[in-house]
Amino acid sequence: MSNRKAFESQFSTKTAVPTSKEKLIAAMQQSFEKETPIDVSKNSILSLRRWAMQRAQEDQSIPYAPDRITSSCHWDGYLRAIDHILEMEHQ
């Protein structure tokens, strides 16, 4: 297994993703109705943030990338979402 696959595998939930639209909507509604927090360590979230920062830097290092602006916006939003999750730690 490559280093990248090994690194990214720690973020996998190892659960099947619903294939039909109805099943996906039902799973999302069920998860939003619960008030219980998800079981994720702060270290896992920080590790995800480090991974995202690394990927963003890799994307920016590609010379003459035609989608650099789109990529930059994507990673900026991704990192902001992670930061927002970290800010909600004690809520």
Element order: H for helix, E for strand: HHHH
Q: What characteristic shape results from the CA principal axes?
A: extended
Helix content: 55-70%
**How far apart, in Å, are the first and last alpha carbons?**
38 Å
Strand content: under 5%
Number of strands: 0
Report on the biggest sheet: none
pLDDT averaged over residues: 79
Uncertain spans: none
In total, how many domains does the architecture comprise? 1
Structural class: mainly alpha
| Rg from alpha-carbon coordinates | 16 Å
The tally of helices reads 4
Search tags:
4 helices; single chain; mainly alpha; 91 residues
Question: Would you spell out the secondary-structure blueprint of this structure?
Answer:
Layout: H1 3-9, H2 21-33, H3 42-60, H4 68-87
Could you characterize what this model shows?
With 91 residues, the protein is mostly helical. It has one domain (3-87). The chain has 4 helices and no strands. The chain has helices spanning 3-9, 21-33, 42-60, 68-87. The longest helix has 20 residues, at 68-87. The radius of gyration is 16 Å and the shape is extended. The protein starts with a helix and ends with a helix. The model has no long low-confidence stretch (mean pLDDT 79).
